[in-house]
Amino acid sequence: MTQQRGVPGAPSEGPSADAVEVRRSTRRRRTVSAYREGDRTVVLIPARMSEAEERRWVRVMLDKLAAQESRRTPDDSELGRRATRLSEQYLAGRARPATVRWVTNQNSRWGSCTPAEGSIRLSHRLQGMPEYVVDYVLLHELAHLLVPGHGPDFWRLLETYPRTERARGYLEGVVAAERLPQLPAARPGESG
């Protein structure tokens, strides 16, 4: 038998902040495990654990998952080198950002740029997408360091990147797919 419930007082920052679901199982004796399921974290614990033990183990497992995810996340220094390479290759080295970094708080944009500060931020949602797509978004933000708006001068800068249209089409497809209704996941043993 498994009991499910959310955890009040779960951390309010990072990917685990969306939702934490604790599943208690009478079959589980000693082990605790956790995994991400969409925008929530599922923590599996033995049914006999006290609420204090549950809270402690939820914190431990959230920290463990965060550490695993940070090891898999490309770092900002690599992103900065990539920006320099793209600027040299496609913008004659004229776009020189002060900072380039991955961020987890951009869910409605792929990237953003603050020309006055020279800062560029790319959404973590780009991680795992084809390199030409990430390069396009990074080049798009680099171009904003030279031309703030989306007028003809801006788009002329991006014409030099041969995969602009392909990358834009890919991102449009991702957005369209996200808008499709979600089908419920099949349960183990069920076929669809």
Question: Which regions contain 5 or more consecutive residues with pLDDT less than 50?
Answer: 7-17
Q: Name the CATH class of the largest domain.
A: Alpha Beta
Radius of gyration: 21 Å
Spell out the helices and strands N to C. EEEEHHEEEHHH
User: What is the CATH superfamily of the largest domain?
Assistant: Metalloproteases ("zincins"), catalytic domain
Region (Disordered): 1-31
Organism: Streptomyces chilikensis
Pfam families: YgjP-like
InterPro entries: UTP_pyrophosphatase-like, YgjP-like_metallopeptidase
What do these coordinates show?
- With 192 residues, the protein is α/β, with parallel strands linked by helices.
- It has 2 domains: 71 residues, no CATH class; 104 residues, Zincin-like (2-Layer Sandwich), CATH 3.30.2010.10.
- The radius of gyration is 21 Å and the shape is elongated.
- The longest helix is centred in the first third of the chain and has 22 residues.
- The two termini are 25 Å apart.
- A hairpin with a 4-residue loop joins strand 6 and strand 7.
- It contains 5 helices and 7 strands; from the N terminus they run ββββααβββααα.
- This is M48 family metallopeptidase.
- Pfam families: YgjP-like.
